[in-house]
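The instructor's notes for this session suggest beginning with a concrete chain rather than abstract definitions. Hand out the sequence below and ask the class to guess, before any prediction is shown, which regions might be ordered.
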Amino acid sequence: MLINLVLVLLTITLPASKEAALWQNCFTKYISSDSILLVYDQDGSGSDTGELELDFYNTNDIPIISINSESEILDKIIKFPDKQLFYAARKKGRASALTSNGISNHLICQALPEWILKININNWTSRASIWQIWEIKK
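After discussion, reveal the predicted structure:
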């Protein structure tokens, strides 16, 4: 009963869509209308970008641009000097890829709260696909 109660409470309090959670908890708080969101889309299919294109939550009309690698961020910094850039990815190792490309960044939010990630039974976080958002510092 206790385990079921905890799981029901988690299910009720967390949004069903991780992307909706990002828009509700991150984008509306941290990303202003003069920003651009860069989304890691390794294969260039647009599927990752499409997952974040939730117009209902994008009240600031933030442009979402697909990129294939972190090295493209440097080009976007030059192309949009007056815009604040943010980078979203759900693949592992993206923070280290930012650092290795010499891009200064700060993690501002992720789809799951930190306390849930600490409950790492059977190392489930290493297999999970969790959206994370970084602020790109110029």
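Then share the key points. The chain has a mean pLDDT of 79. Residues 17-137 form one domain.
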